[in-house]
Specification:
Elements: E1 2-7, E2 11-18, E3 24-31, E4 35-36, H1 37-48, E5 56-63, E6 66-74, E7 77-80, E8 92-98, E9 104-105, E10 114-115, E11 119-125, H2 137-152
Parallel strand pairs: 1-3, 2-11
Antiparallel strand pairs: 2-3, 4-10, 5-6, 6-7, 8-9, 8-11
Length: about 150
Amino acid sequence: MGSWDLGSGDSTAEVQFDFLTGESYLFEVSFDSSITGRDLFDVIATEADTVDGLEFTFDYIAYSFGDFLVGVGINDAYDYGEGSPPDYLDTWGYWISDGTDDWASSMVGFSDRVLVDGSRDGWVFGTGLAPASIPAPATIAVFAFGLGRRRRD
């Protein structure tokens, strides 16, 4: 799992991507002004160019009512789909949560979801399932510190 802190500002939102291969990636994005779930993608794409070891791409179809996410690539992971029959599962499912609330399938598109401090967005490809449970970046750092410390003993 990869995890990155990007952006700047007093408010923070998380966006998680779960690929069909089982890989999960978490971005914690800081911001000041109003931002949508779609805007997070632009922040990540812009900032990824300045982070060593991070490649981020995304593809979408623009409709009059909003954007439809069809492809996401993070480093070597990439999934693309437009919802082909018969099961229509080759799509990115959009899940939302605020704070520590449980994940819920979004009833609005990511262009219309306005994020607040503590918002969480999750994208899962190809399964229809809620995002995987992964620890927050701070928890990962504490865990890694503990492992490093244990090895020195």
